[in-house]
Amino acid sequence: MTTQTPLRRPARLTRMTVIAAFLWSLLALPIGLWQLLDPASGPYSNDLFEPTIPLPAALPDWIAPAALVAAGLLGLLIARARKGLWPLTALYAVVFGMLLSTVTPISVAGYLCAFAIPIAVVVVPVLLARGTAARLITAAAIAAVLIGLGVTGVVDYGAVAEFAKLLGGTMAGLSGYLFTQVWTVAGGAIWAALTLQLLLMRRDGEPQAAWLAPEHAVRWGRVASWAAFASALPYGLMRMTWLTPWAYAGGPIGEDFPLETRIWGLLLGFAALGGGVLCLGLTQPWGERWPFWMLPLKGRPVPPMVAIVPGAIMAALFTFMAVPMVALGIRQDALELVWAFPFYVWGPALGAATLAYAIRRGVVKTAR
């Protein structure tokens, strides 16, 4: 009788992913029961909910929530680090990440990133200043600029506060729906991560695939990072036209375009371009050691997870948004959504670049 060589796995990461998959499956039970018992106001009854592939109208309303409860129960059973389960975990990733998701998560992520830009402009210079005196002077200078913008009327802080209040109220009113949308996409990401880890498992002594070697990862990771950067350009550059008299957004925009809308669109565009630049950091020296302008940290190694965690999250989000975004563009006859948001390239490319970075930084161990 022969003994089977045990599988070698990234124990800590696999254990974390298994726990996440188990907890996600556990949450499916109350969410499914909520929709089943309260179909009129359940989280999937919101007018914004428009799944990529809707169920036939002839099916009873209870079918979908009952199937969700069943999926949660099955998920509790398959949330295990067993290599033979990868087809089921991959199926969960596709169904929840691409077929049941909507474009709501990427819209929320875009708005959050746009909000973060002005906050970062104010906070980051203070954090980068060296010494207490320099930070106080920097903070005072920024405060003076902000006060000056308000006094001269360049920025209407009252209107900004009113907009933030309105947006916050809207988000609060959609809290149940937004939670389930984030939960759905998070599930796709969790099951995709578990699938990848199961596929990367190997037995002791079994050689790893050649393309996973660090020297190979440097090459294909660089190509992937530039592809991800290029994917950020269409939307970002389209928004940059709003700085010119020839503003474009799926078509020319008239001169009476509201200033507040123009500013908001520019923030979204800068967020996209900034994200593209960060994609390049996965293969650049400043992605491994803090650059010179990060004065308190310059020259120190960048903790790998600082790049890997957000890179993996955004790669999963972009990949899962590819199908809903294309479907939305086709349904609304707005094909500019297809080329302006090439998530079908951006997500996989960013995922590959992040994996290559993790291999190079030693987070994903490979055979030599």
Distance between the termini: 31 Å
In spatial order, strands of the major sheet run 1-2
Strand content: under 5%
Oligomer classification: single chain
Runs in which pLDDT lies below 50 for 5 or more consecutive residues are 1-11
The number of strands is 2
Shape field: globular
Helical/strand content category: mainly alpha
Instruction: Work out the helix count.
Output: 12
Radius of gyration: 23 Å
| Helix percentage | 55-70%
List the secondary-structure elements in sequence, H or E.
Answer: EHHHHHHHEHHHHH
Return the average pLDDT rounded to an integer: 82
Main sheet?
Answer: 2 strands, antiparallel
Molecular structure report:
By secondary structure, the chain is an all-alpha fold. It has a domain at 206-368. The protein is 67% helix and 1% strand. It is built from twelve helices and two strands. A two-stranded antiparallel sheet has the order 1-2. The longest helix is centred in the C-terminal third of the chain and has 28 residues, at 304-331. The two termini are 31 Å apart. 27% of the residues are buried. Mean pLDDT is 82; it is low at 1-11.
